[in-house]
Amino acid sequence: MAHFGKDVDNFSATRTIRIVGVETNDKFTTYIIEIAVGHYVWRVKHRYNDFHDLHNQLVYSCKVDKCLLPPKKMFGNQSDTFIKKRQSDLEAYLQTMLYYLAHKVPPVLASFLQFDKYEIHGITQCMAEELYNRGDILLQSRDPYVVTPLQLYSLTERLKLPEPTCESGDVKKDIGHILDFITRVKCLKVAGSRERVGTSNIDMTQLKFDLSLFKSLQCLESECCHVSNILGIETVKETLEKVSIQQGLTNIRDLVLNGLTQWKSEDGTVLVTQWENLVEADFSRNSIREIDDSVQLIPRVEVLDLSHNRLTGVQHLNWLSQLTQLDLSNNEIKDLENLHTKIGNLKILNLAGNKMDSLKGLSKLFSLETLDVRNNNLAQVEEVQYVCCLPCIENLYLEGNPVNQVLDYRTKILEQCGDRVLEVSLDDLKPSQKELDTVAVLQAIRKSKENKVKIQSGTRKLSASELQSSGSRHSSLSGSEGKMSSRQELGWSTHGSFSATPSVSEGESSLKANSSNSSRTASNASQMEDPTHDSSRTSFSGSEGEHKGEQRPRYRTLSQDDPPHTHTIAISSLPTHQDPQFMSWLQERLFGKDTEPGAIVEQVVNVLWCGVIQFTRQELMVPCCAVLSKRRIFILRLKPGESGYPGVPELETFYILPLCNVQEVVIGPCYSYIRLEESFVGASGTFTLVVSDPDDGKSFSHSIVTAYSSGDLGPLNLANFSQNSDLASHIFSLEDLEGLCTGRIAYSMLVTIAGVEQSSLLILSENKVYLVHIDCLFWPRPSFLSVLEDIKNPNFTFLQNHSITTKMSDIKMNVKLKLSSRSKKTVDTSSLQFEKYGLSIIFHELVGPVGMHLYFFSTKARDGFLDRLTNLRSEHAHRLSPTIREEPEGGNESSDSLDNSTASQTVPTPASGPQIKVEPEEDKAVMAEEDTVTAADAIEKEFLEKAMTEGNGSAPKSRSVTISELRLNVAPADVKETEPPEIDYLTDELCSQLTKSIQSYQLAKKIPSKLKVLKNMTGKELAQYFHSDIAMIGVDYEQLHFVLWSVVIPYDRPHCEIISCVMLSTKAVYFVSNQLVKSPMKERQSWMTHTRHKSDSIVIGQQPVQTDRHHTSGIIHSSQHGTIIRPYHILQYSDLHQVNVGLFDQCIRLTGRDRHTVNTLVTRDSAVTERFVNQLTTMLSIFTSSPMLESSASDLEQDFYRAFERRTKTVVDGMEYVHPSKVQFIYPGEDVMSDLLFIITEHLHLPTSAKRKADILMYFIGYVATEEHHVGSVDHVKSRNMVLTNQYLCFIVEDLINYPIPDFARGLPNSPRYKVTEIKKISHLKRVLMFKDNEHKLSLIFSDEPDEINVDTSSDHFSVENDSSGRQSPPEVESTILIQSPRDMNKFMLLLKNQWREVQDGEELEVHVL
Prior knowledge:
Blueprint: H1 13-16, E1 17-24, E2 29-37, E3 40-47, H2 48-62, H3 80-101, H4 107-112, H5 115-118, H6 120-140, E4 145-147, H7 149-160, H8 176-182, E5 187-191, E6 209-210, E7 219-223, E8 230-231, H9 233-236, E9 242-246, H10 252-256, E10 280-282, E11 303-305, E12 325-327, E13 348-350, E14 370-372, H11 385-388, E15 395-397, H12 409-415, E16 425-426, H13 433-458, H14 464-478, H15 484-489, E17 492-494, H16 504-513, H17 518-529, H18 531-538, E18 567-569, H19 580-591, E19 604-614, E20 617-629, E21 632-642, E22 649-658, E23 662-667, E24 673-678, E25 686-690, H20 694-710, E26 718-720, H21 726-737, E27 745-753, E28 758-765, E29 768-773, E30 798-803, E31 808-813, E32 832-834, E33 837-845, E34 848-856, H22 859-879, E35 902-903, E36 917-918, H23 924-931, H24 935-947, H25 963-966, H26 988-999, H27 1012-1015, H28 1019-1030, E37 1040-1050, E38 1058-1065, E39 1068-1073, E40 1105-1106, E41 1126-1132, E42 1138-1141, E43 1148-1151, E44 1158-1162, H29 1166-1185, H30 1193-1202, E45 1208-1210, E46 1214-1218, E47 1224-1226, H31 1230-1244, E48 1256-1265, E49 1277-1285, ...
Parallel strand pairs: 4-5, 5-7, 6-8, 7-9, 9-10, 10-11, 11-12, 12-13, 13-14, 14-15, 15-16, 18-32, 23-26, 31-36, 42-47, 52-55
Antiparallel strand pairs: 1-2, 2-3, 17-18, 19-20, 19-25, 20-21, 21-22, 23-24, 24-25, 27-28, 27-34, 28-29, 29-30, 31-33, 33-34, 35-40, 37-38, 37-44, 38-39, 39-41, 42-43, 43-44, 45-46, 46-47, 48-49, 48-54, 49-50, 50-51, 52-53, 53-54
Helix pairs in contact: 6-7, 6-8, 12-13, 14-17, 17-18, 22-24, 26-28
């Protein structure tokens, strides 16, 4: 028997066990046994019957003599003499047993002496058995693993002994289970106690233990265990994220330094490593008297709990720059003077249970949100007002203070909160309405008293200097007209009815009315009106900027104090970053000349002229110039005056944002805006840059990313919502509910709604035009609002929305509207604004005409919107047209044509319609600009004129119309509307079969939303749709007989899997999907950016175009849907040469005459493949017999039997069947299986004698979740062939399109046929997870642990030099696969269980259904 730190050889049974006493009662006698192991002693109690049972088990298991135990006595067994004799005999019996069995104590004897509670072998074996049974459950649980210091001490001492890990012979008690567990456990709780352990003298507070083997520990909790007894902290601190030490700490340095005394050099350099990952520290309920300087070693702590200690002050917390939550409750703190200088951006502070009588020291904690000062000595309301006015305070707790006894305590405290009274919760209660009313009255009385005092103390006469300043201001204003010529040269124009020069009397009366601020008003007004003075005051240059040491504020809040002038400048006339002279001037303007001594060389990278909206004033937009340098972003406000560079107005430095302080960059839809947020500044440091050209916005955002990455600042927090965003998803979901085809934002730009002067975001989707409230510019919410408000659910407000197919009229350019009475100020009322370009459109909705009147910042933005609108209207016109489509002439749309023949077309005369009217401008320069009509404008005008002619005087039609009504009247006059074709061959049986096939979608991948409308069709609707939109035109007697859903891989795109509906007719195989056709495109002029029908083009006669022979428009004519579904390939039976069936019927390749007529159907289901082959042979037979109707019966019979002459070649080469249509059906042979088996065995490096381990039991094609995404996700999967052998599961990439090599191919493909990517050993499989919500999904949990546990008994587990850290066990590896066929799923699980049972000696595989 080994014991606590003692040598086994010196063990003496006589001195370690004895019976020290007895306890008797009327029925039986209990013997008190004392076991002494070194200095540790414990007692157990047993009756004689317990001894008798123990002896019987020892006789059976250890072959001890039956006569060693004193015999029973039925009578007289309660006498004192007998009891003493039996006590002596039983003591001798126990000593004899231990003497002979000391080298290996039997479990029954160890249990009898309670070794599992007090002895290290028993304790560790008990732990091992528990972890063997519950280890996996404990690892998956989020609860900490609870152990005692005695258990950890026993494990530490047990590992020091040179003994095997499984001494008892019971596998469940192998301490290897403990080693495996502790290397993987993440959360540990050491629950100590100050009481003795059971009946022993063991004091757990004195036991030392080592945590070095806890390699993955992230959370450590300790109670009643002094940190000096915890060894190995230096190892676990590398992974710890949370630590909690209670009742075991007197100084923080005891834990942080772990006993080190010399941790700083003479020059102050830290010699030990920091706790890099620690973010939460709980040092509550200890005896800490001060916060020592060792806290600088835990710099990333965000939550610190020092409650229930003996602190009297706060020191050294300035090292914790990321601290946001601090608990100092129940200490001895009396005062916290200037606390803001000692801590950072604190949000939650708990000071309850201290001795504070004033909160003055907390008056500058501007980020504080929650303050708890309950049970202190606060007696006066005035001592609380310091924290009531904090800008972020939301929760204030004052219970248990003398101030609670003040009359009307709550209303007096809430009064101090000012305007934020509605947001503050006092003592966990929001103010009631009665309290709010009382507070409002008290605040009004207080403000009245303050104003009265100001008026009485501020009444005085104007000084002579103030009058002189006022006079100079008016003289400056009167001279402003003389500078108009120079302003016109800069491209400015003036509008409006405001007077630029108020009369002197008006100025004097204004000054008298605001006598208290008269000096400031006059001074500011003179500075703002005089460009010379303003330039000298605010210019930011090398001579007067920060390089000269001038103290300037880095930002200021937007205001509307400037006089409301309306000088404008065209944004298109301003220079860009492509102008080297302007960039050089701007470089000198910001940073000075390079020759100046001390100048900082910082290169200007990009420039963006934009409107700026600050979060603090979201209704106000300021014209600015955003300048990006290598290290900063400058926001320069446009002011009147000359800047020194021709064509550029005066630039005033408004805000400087260092790139290193950028918290987040948000890109708006279609790069319409860029949102910047600075860290630790809040609302005043959050800006939205509104661009006038998406190309400029894209260029500027890319420049920000490049500058940030080149500065070694780490990854930029960039949220690119140019296409995918919450707003776009919301729009798509709304359009989806209406049954509209959606999925793309075509255009986005911030505009101003004319008449009300309200900014709005203009969104153009594939179906509608939206005007969205500018609240969307600040969604997602900035990071500083993450706690202040609920940001989970966006609330987008749509001011207008119109369908792009709605009739439009009265399209006018440069419209001028009078201001409405409900006009909102959405632009800065300073003296300079960007020129605006109007657009007015009337939408004829069902409710009547609705006008949309907008202002754009540039003609390019306005023309871009009209261009996109024109394109989309043209697309909708083509979709709904029943005529034969020609190839689109321009734009980024893919060609639908499958035929390369050309034809000359006659250009029809455009229909007449409403004209686009351009309103005259007052400024002749603007008139000249608008009169210059580009080619693109002419095309837009021509299309809009035609597209808006939809019947004279007819009312707008509802969406719920018939199929024929949905077709727009855009075809020539000689084309007549046709009814859906009559389908005479469609029997009830065929209709039922088509319905079942099209509605039975069994693929593992989710069906695209655009194909759902096809899936929901009936057989009759599918046949009608096939003949009206899919089938080739001009082909007679074509019948649709079979459809199936499958994944298709085209030969031209071997890495692209297309979810397709494969249709088999009597003439061809149709591959139908929402996939766009990418045919070769011809050269077009750059301005031709949208598709047109041949009836609305003015240049189609100048170019050869392609024609197609089928309905490539691919439109499902339904009142509920407008989805583009088209055949991306049609394989006629006359072009079909070979049909190659894949291994185990998992796929089938249709091979034509060239690379463009080869497609592989990856069915992943042998039953589906078999059904498709049977249907294909039937269609080929019908196709073959159709042209031979005039042949004799003997000819037909002869041709049919001739096809079977060479049906089977050899077993090795596979089976080849030649159909009467001359189409070859080729099946794989034994050579394919041999190749696959050879590749697997070569990858495993198996010897020849062991190659039976790779016998193929099952082969199928499935999906595997990619590594870069969550292993449980099925949104991102890759196709993999899976081969199950006797002992391995292999994942293989197979080239399904290039092999077998087709006849037209020249040379070998670049990729091999098979490539093994991963092989898993079945013996390492731990369990299998199945999912009720996805019948295709399967998760296999592997663990690459070694077969045997080896422990080096010669190593010192606690040696500093020894790198051995115990048994290293890798984490579990989860492989998520998708199996498409339910039959394959059942077969795979059956074979996997059988093979696992075989390699695990009959044990059953764990299968969990989630």
